[in-house]
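Comment thread on ticket #2218

A.B. wrote:
> Attaching the input chain for the structure job we discussed in standup.
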Amino acid sequence: MSEARERVREHLLTHSVKRGDFVLKSGRHSSWFIDSKQTICAPEIMLDVANEVLGVLPSDVSALGGLTMGADGLSFITAGVASTKGRELRAFSVRKEVKDHGAGGRIAGSLLANDRVVITEDTVTRGTSLVEAANVVRDYGATVVGLLALVDRGGTVAAMAEKEGWPFFAIFSAPDLGFTYEGV
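C.D. wrote:
> Ran it. Output below, let me know if you need it in another format.
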């Protein structure tokens, strides 16, 4: 494991992982929860997070984003860091519902219909947010070429993504953080 990857892992364990009794989005209970935004948005580690994401992004990807709020931090810091390395990546958010004023729609930010897109999320268990965002992006006219999460706590997203023809990239898995997959 690289030093940067180990720093991100340690930051996640120290600042993002919580132990106790938590109710997940699915309604199931879990003995651990991870608020990855505590790591993604922390100035002392965000460059390492973005570089880890850039390390797995296919070279032909031109945009990244996903369902707001879970995707926003990861997409925006990665696009920002990419620009300092001469790689132009657009970043966008998918709203949870259609905006009924202004330009409307569900896409906010920079996305073009001809973009090749990786859909992002901070933490996934089942991957439903990734799929919802991918469908919105596909309907917009862009091409979804993969799904990516900083942390995969469920262990089932890769199989679900494969059925759609998308590769799934997880920077960290539940076992990487010392937990078993939640599975759904």
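A.B. wrote:
> Thanks. Noting for the ticket: The radius of gyration is 16 Å.
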